[in-house]
Amino acid sequence: MTEKSYHIITFGCQMNVHDSQWLARALTARSFVEAPLEDAQVVIVNTCSVREKPEQKVMSALGRIRQVTGGSPHVLVAVTGCVAQQVGAAFFEKEAQVRLVAGSDGIANAPAAIERLLAEPELRLSLLDFSSSYLEREPGADGPCGPVAHVNIMQGCDNFCTYCIVPFTRGRQKSRMSAAILDECRLRIAQGAREICLLGQNVNAFGRDGHGDGLSFARLLHQVAGLPGLRRLRFVTPHPKDMSPQDIAAFAELPQLCPRLHLPLQAGSDSVLKRMHRRYDSAAFLDLVSRLREARPDLALSTDLIVGFPGETEADFQATLDMMRACGFMSSFSFCYSDRPGARAALFPDKIAPVIQQDRLLRLQALQEELGQQWLQARTGTETSLLLEGRSPKARMDTTDPPALTSWQGRDPYGVPVHVYLPEHADHTGRMLSVRITNAKKHSLQADALEAPW
Ligand code: SAH
Ligand code: SF4
Ligand code: F3S
Question: CB within 8 A of 2, min separation 6: which ones?
Fold first, then answer.
């Protein structure tokens, strides 16, 4: 075991990934080093409870940690995030190695708590209180940032969709002060970011909760897009009901705003949407899509979908498939509904049998494969720009003459991975490159460079 070393295991959404990255920077600033699980003194499990499966994964991760570390009392295990918020101090009874439980707002103080726990081996701490406003966090270790940076703009959610645990685990919505958001964006750009993705559970309700400074989401988009050096702007996740005319207009007005929008539909049937408490119906969603496409004709949409919500009939399910075709989603995340204790739908009658849920999920995913392939195929022959991220994971050397070409991976404005051969000798990371798409693979594209990036 290496003294002052840490290992982080992350489950869940982009916000959890972002929290884990921050934990790593904050521990690095306290002179901790990263280590493999078998070597680490501190093991952090950053958890998700949005569905049954991720929650089960957390429990099996704790079992694996016990196995790998032999249950050593010298290894400090911290459970953070949404399951920690829910289960709380009961974790201390479940697993003897767990000495820190930190919920959504408690994470901000987790690095200091870890130092204290290492100094006081008998102590256990739980950080479960929700703060009354967005908690700014210590900046953590400085260092270069990749070409894409994620920046939190809020915490929590007020929507209480009936299937969802998030408002309970992340607490009420709290917007961050816009000055702090803009400062973090400037810092990331100075560290090398060319693309910024604004994060939150309900980003387009930013500024409406009375905790921040009241700047609207559309104004925030304008201010971030205007930062010198920024080439691309994205955000995730917006709620369809909160999309203002100004948000839609931003897609026409801001060239930095990428023509890709993740817009969670969840279901196509109006009665299911009503019971989900989504507060839009299929007609309103289609109207929103057409207004967005009017503002930005090259817009591509992706979505989240749930199958087998309580009471969902085959006709309801067919309505979801119809909406998928009507919207032409380029991709989607799809899930079988699972009961979340505390969420209202857990009490709804007419639960759908798992075999039926699974059958619907497979049919939905088959349709999505078809729509995704159609969308990718239609891209071949078009010109676009890439933000280069690094060598392709499975880079093959090109053997043509002159040699020394390597496959690089970039993302197009839709966030699709695109592979392109470039000269080996230079580091192209963070550069923009004009390309022509030559070929569509299953979930990625191949392209030829239209210019020399060096
Ligand atoms: N705030 C975002 C993301 C919420 S969680 C939004 O409103 O879209 C991510 C996705 O998990 C949701 O969009 C939903 O599709 C899915 N999800 C949430 N609770 C679920 C549950 N109980 N069962 C199945 N899927 C669920
Ligand atoms: Fe959950 Fe709905 Fe909030 Fe998204 S908007 S986090 S699905 S309650
Ligand atoms: Fe999971 Fe919490 Fe995110 S429940 S999806 S980690 S907000």
Answer: 33, 35, 39, 40, 41
> DSSP letter string over 170-205?
T-S-EEPPHHHHHHHHHHHHHTT-SEEEEE-TTGGG
Distance in angstroms (rounded) separating the CA atoms of residues 298 and 304: 21
As beta bridge partners, residue 384 has 435
Q: Which atom, in ligand 3's list, is nearest to the CA of 201? A: 7
Other CB atoms within a 10 A radius of the CB of residue 56 amount to: 10
Locate 206 and state its tokens: 């930013």
What residue has token string 């909760």? Answer: 209
Q: Which uninterrupted H or E stretch holds 379? A: helix 354-379
Q: Which residues pair with 154 in a beta bridge?
A: 175
| Beta strand 417-423 pairing with 405-411 | antiparallel
Sign of CA dihedral 206, 208, 212, 217: positive
Pocket of ligand 1 contains residue 332 by CB under 6 Å: no
Name the pTM for this structure. 0.96
Domain 143-258: state its class.
Answer: alpha beta
**Would you say the CB of residue 173 lies under 6 angstroms from ligand 1?**
no
Asked if 101 and 79 count as a contact pair (C-beta separation under 8 A), the reply is yes
Ligand 1, atom 24, lies closest to the CA of 337
Q: Are 196 and 232 in contact (CB under 8 A)?
A: yes
The CATH number for 383-449, chosen from 3.30.1150, 1.25.40, 2.40.50, 3.40.50, is: 2.40.50
Pick the CATH number of 5-127 from 3.40.50.12160, 2.60.40.420, 3.90.320.10, 3.60.20.20: 3.40.50.12160
Inter-residue contact 409 to 419 (CB < 8 Å): yes
- How many angstroms separate the CA atoms of 416 and 222, rounded? 24
Give me the phi and psi of 435, to 5 degrees please.
Answer: -140, 165
Mean pLDDT, 10 residues at a time, the chain of 454 residues: 95 96 96 97 97 88 95 96 95 94 97 97 96 92 89 97 97 97 97 97 97 96 98 98 98 98 98 98 98 98 98 98 98 97 97 98 98 97 96 66 77 97 85 96 94 70
Q: Which atom of ligand 3 is nearest to the CA of 165?
A: 4
Give the other-Cβ count within 10 Å of 342's Cβ.
13
The enclosing H or E element of 362 equals: helix 354-379
